[in-house]
Design a protein that fits this description.
The complex is a heterotrimer of chains A (291), B (260) and C (323). Chain B is an alpha/beta fold. Chain B is built from 10 helices and 10 strands. Chain C is mostly helical and 323 residues long. Classes of the chains: A mainly alpha (291), B alpha/beta (260), C mainly alpha (323).
């Protein structure tokens, strides 16, 4: 019965790492601007799709991926500048709608440029599976986990050691106070959108060799990333990463042991149960706004 | 109006409220006599707003009793306490800014305006009558506080002082037995405060509503109160008539601190 | 704020109904009737959702679930269970309401993003069930053979007849909503939107009111669902997914929160828009997104709010001119 367990664990962690990165992107923007960016999933889609595109233009794989991630970071920055910043005083729901509108735009644009086909990005270092601990581990899975860990470590360093990082944290705690001490909240918002674009694209690029990519993969990935972020406690960046891993593993085991058709539902069932019991998430502070 | 000393309208005995490690109220007694204006004063952090929150059900007491007209209300949900006869205003204005001034006050009569959803859908005669009465009573409250001319203005557009009056009118519209005012003079200038004092006295005398008052403005407190309770670190320090309280050395020490 | 005259709602709804009934005669061909029917269906859902979002200040990103529950319930009742259509319809609306009642208790304790996420998750779970429970719902390929609506012998077998029915239903929903919002219930909902503690202090049972408006909005979505099923005779899970939930939210926001007429306008506009963009073929999604972003940026309080502001400006200009 437990024969599949190691395999499910590996694929769960792989997928979960990606969810974690997506959740991290959500959290970063939320912390700095208070907005939930429903276009986050499209950043992920762009990462994979643009990497395929740049590869097709002749760039070697590592450069194609890097270029895709940088390009998506620029998309994030443009989004903040052109659509989010002008909205400064409007009610929160308007920002949600704008991000939804932008996600539609990005999806429509991708469909126009790349068509509706599913595209494949080659694995970073071959496809020969590594047999270990009763599971066949794709090398790409190792890439996913390694890149995720590296990115998390880099972010931790960024937040604790650089002035920009600390400024972003300040914004997330207390925006008004942050601006009073001279931190440009607007610039932090721009930075957070760019970084989220980058992180989302990385998630998309490292996942694309495993799950393929298409113009519409962004929606479900974005939603699950959002779920990861809530699971880990909204506002807690590393909680989001952990939430993603938990989500991925639960989903994988659920699909394996229960019913694969309901796999997508699994994540949300877990989420709902958690919200009903502890809305502040696994790692969030209790005492979130409840009646 | 004679103060009925025998049976307090509001009788809080032994109330204890804890927030984690902080003891906001410790074995606190507080009584408001029917037909009086009773003030609750004390330095910042003494537990005055916590006491109000406990009486209105926004905070739970871990020990003690709260009786209104003899009935224990400590177990009632906040929205049921309004029906029981306790209504309050808020330190930070909680005016319904999306509605007009009149609609705010009509909302105050929510518990007293009774008709079914079906009646409101079909606009039955019963509904029309109830709405008309609600509107008339609301206008009456607005006139009482002096806001009748502003009735159709969006509530959020009113200047601060008038919004405070609106909150009072809205609370009065609920026909309370006990009206609790949480720092009603905060942010008012001296002219507005004087008018507030007159209004509080009028509430007691002309509308027969008992008033509980949490306030920092000592002139106002001394002018309108029949009775004052002093709270200090969550526990009553003294209680009595205004001149007694003013002369009480413990009270003076609590407010002004130890002499250096 | 303008003075409100008694009978105003009924008069306006009647005028609205008259306009709706007259509209088909201005349309070039029958095809547009089906768009109009869909617009009316969407308007019913949007008005219901606006009661929840605009007036009561809650949010639901999963309302498509109730639309679908209504549709599938009546489909199953009237085909597999062989029940008469009115029974199926009642079942659809009731089931949507009951599910909402059950979900409301734990969900409405949440606020803001957490509430959004819970409703979103609920909507997705339900849409996945629609897809996966093949024996019950027919799965992704959909459910066929739903009978066209027929009530007490009269069959609504032409699009024109169905449209007339939808117009009446929509007008009644609008009238009911307007009446409800201008009553103690409406005041209570708008009050709890701004300040739950003040509303509670005045006797409003917050939890009960939130649950009531949630169930009501779900029932309205369920009503639209049953009418949708008996119109198209075929339903598929794709119509009841996250995309539709988002569409309805956009209709509400674009139309103007806390404005019943705004939701109708938003629904009509956003139902017609994809049709109008059809000629743009590949870039239709792009243009749709662009219009959405543009509309929210330039008219943040929606069509109703924007028109309201325009009307006030014109009135002031008129008054100044008159002096």
């Amino acid at each position: 019965m437990l024969s599949g367990a190691p395999q499910y664990l590996v694929s769960g962690l792989t997928q979960g790492a990606a969810y974690g990165l997506i959740g991290l992107g959500f959290t970063m923007i939320f912390n700095t601007t208070g907005i939930i960016n429903f276009a986050q999933g499209e950043f992920v889609m762009l990462g994979g799709m643009l990497a395929v595109a740049f590869l097709g233009l002749g760039l070697p794989l590592p450069l194609a991926v890097a270029a895709a991630c940088l390009a998506t970071a620029v998309v994030g920055a443009l989004m903040e500048r052109l659509a989010i910043r002008p909205l400064a005083g409007a009610p929160a729901i308007n920002a949600v709608i704008i991000t939804i509108g932008i996600s539609i735009l990005l999806r429509g644009g991708a469909m126009l440029v790349f068509g509706k086909d599913t595209l494949a990005l080659p694995a970073f270092s071959g496809v020969a599976p590594i047999l270990a601990m009763g599971a066949a581990i794709q090398p790409q899975s190792i890439w996913v986990l390694a890149v995720t860990l590296a990115l998390l470590a880099a972010l931790k360093l960024f937040f604790s050691a650089t002035i920009q990082g600390k400024a972003m944290l300040a914004c997330s705690c207390q925006k008004k106070a942050a601006s009073l001490v001279g931190i440009s909240v607007a610039r932090m918002a721009l930075l957070s959108f760019s970084l989220s674009g980058l992180i989302g694209a990385v998630a998309g690029a490292i996942l694309a060799p495993i799950t393929m990519t298409a113009y519409d993969v962004g929606t479900m990935l974005g939603l699950k990333g959002f779920a990861a972020c809530i699971l880990g406690g909204l506002g807690n960046p590393f909680g989001a990463a952990a939430g993603g891993l938990v989500l991925g593993v639960l989903e994988s085991f659920g699909a394996g042991y229960v019913a694969s058709g309901y796999k997508d539902a699994f994540a949300f069932v877990v989420l709902l149960l958690l919200l009903f019991v502890k809305p502040s998430g696994l790692f969030g502070k209790a005492g979130v706004e409840r009646v | 109006m004679a103060i009925d000393a025998a049976a307090p309208l509001l009788d809080v005995s032994g109330a204890t409220v804890r927030f984690g490690g902080i003891h906001a109220l410790t074995d606190a007694d507080f009584a408001i006599a029917k037909g009086s204006v009773t003030a609750l004063i004390g330095p910042n952090g003494a537990g005055k707003t916590t006491m109000l929150n406990a009486i209105t059900g926004m905070v739970a007491i871990s020990d003690g009793e709260i009786r209104l007209d003899g009935t224990d209300i400590a177990g009632l949900a906040p929205h049921k306490r309004a029906a029981a006869g306790v209504v309050r205003t808020f330190q930070n204005l909680e005016v319904f800014t999306s509605m007009s001034v009149l609609e705010n006050v009509m909302a105050g009569r929510h518990a007293l305006t009774r008709y079914t959803v079906a009646a409101s859908l079909l606009r039955t005669p019963g509904f029309r009558r109830a709405e008309r009465q609600c509107r008339e009573r609301a206008l009456d409250c607005l006139e009482f506080v002096g806001l009748a001319d502003d009735r159709d203005a969006p509530a959020g557009d009113l200047p601060y002082g008038r919004q405070r009056l609106l909150e009072m009118a809205r609370a009065l519209a609920a026909d309370p037995k006990l009206l609790l005012l949480d720092e009603p003079a905060a942010g008012l200038n001296s002219k507005e405060t004087a008018r507030l004092g007159d209004l509080i006295t009028a509430v007691r005398d002309k509308r027969g509503v008992t008033v509980g008052l949490v306030e920092h403005d000592m002139d106002l407190v001394m002018n309108v109160s029949d009775h004052i309770t002093v709270l200090h670190f969550g526990h009553p320090l003294a209680a009595g008539a205004p001149d007694q309280i003013q002369a009480n050395p413990e009270v003076v020490k609590a407010y002004l601190g130890e002499d250096e | 704020m303008k003075r409100f005259l008694p009978g105003q709602h009924a008069a306006r709804s009647a005028l609205f109904l008259a306009l709706l009934l007259a509209a088909p005669y201005a349309l070039p061909n029958e095809y547009y009737l089906s768009i109009c029917i869909l617009a009316c269906l969407n308007a019913v859902v949007a008005v219901g959702l606006n009661l929840l979002m605009g007036y009561a200040g809650q949010i639901s990103l999963g309302h498509a679930a109730f639309y679908g529950i209504g549709a599938y319930a009546t489909a199953i009742c009237t085909t597999r269970l062989g029940l008469p259509i009115p029974v199926g319809m009642a079942a659809g609306v009731s089931l949507a309401a009951v599910v909402a009642w059950i979900v409301a208790a734990p969900t409405l304790k949440l606020k803001g993003h957490y509430l959004a996420m819970a409703t979103l998750g609920f909507g997705i779970i339900v849409s996945i069930v629609f897809n996966e429970a093949v024996d019950l719902t027919g799965g992704p390929s959909g459910y066929v053979g739903i009978p066209r609506l027929a009530l007490s012998g009269y069959a609504f077998d032409t699009d024109h007849a169905y449209y007339n029915l939808m117009a009446v239903v929509l007008a009644l929903v609008v009238l009911g909503s307007l009446n409800l919002m201008k009553s103690r219930t409406g005041r209570a909902l708008r009050a709890l939107h701004v300040s739950e503690k003040a509303a509670a202090s005045l006797g409003v049972d917050i939890a009960a009111h939130k649950r009531f408006v949630f169930v009501l909005s779900a029932a309205l979505a369920g009503l639209a669902g049953v009418l949708y099923a008996h119109y198209l005779s075929f339903i598929a899970p794709a119509s009841f997914g996250f995309a539709y939930s988002v569409q309805v939210v956009v209709m509400v926001v674009l139309g103007g929160m806390a404005s019943v007429w705004g939701s109708v306008a938003g629904a009509f506009f956003l139902t017609a828009l994809p049709e109008a963009l059809r000629e743009f073929e590949d870039i239709d999604i792009l243009v749709y997104g662009a219009i959405l972003v543009g509309a929210i940026m330039f008219v943040p309080d929606g069509l109703a709010g924007g028109l309201g502001r325009l009307a006030r400006k014109l009135r002031r200009a008129g008054a100044a001119h008159g002096n």
